[in-house]
Design goal:
It is built from 4 helices and 4 strands.
Length: 122
């Protein structure tokens, strides 16, 4: 599911102090998405580019309205600026790769012990 929505942020200008506008804008975006998409607030993720767009002019001078692109993946709702692709994270580490790392670390420790055993104690 992908959708483009315009969120008006005029409530932030009227109801909050100017020193906390950017923080309130982030809260308002989450509140707006919760209301219009009927999802839990814990499952809403705001993209890095959207966050930087809100904060780019500082805490006091936030944009009056924002166009955002919403996409739903698994149980999470991801909000980002339009035209910006969502980056996929790398696959979760499998047991095989973890096992290989453990083996290499133990081998390195054994090598260190043999090197330290060769030196005579004074």
């Amino acid at each position: 599911m992908e959708k483009t929505i315009t969120i008006p942020l005029k409530d932030v200008y009227n109801k909050s102090s100017y020193t906390k506008r950017a923080k309130k804008c982030i809260f308002l975006v989450k509140k707006f998405l919760k209301k219009h998409t009927k999802t839990n607030e814990k499952n809403i993720k705001i993209g890095v580019q959207l966050n930087e767009f809100i904060w780019k002019n500082g805490m006091k001078n936030t944009p009056r309205k924002i166009d955002i692109n919403i996409s739903k993946k698994d149980k999470f709702l991801i909000a980002n600026l339009p035209g910006i692709a969502i980056e996929e994270k790398e696959a979760i580490k499998t047991e095989e790769t973890i096992g290989k790392k453990i083996q290499t670390k133990t081998e390195e420790k054994k090598e260190e012990k043999t090197i330290s055993d060769d030196k005579p104690n004074l």
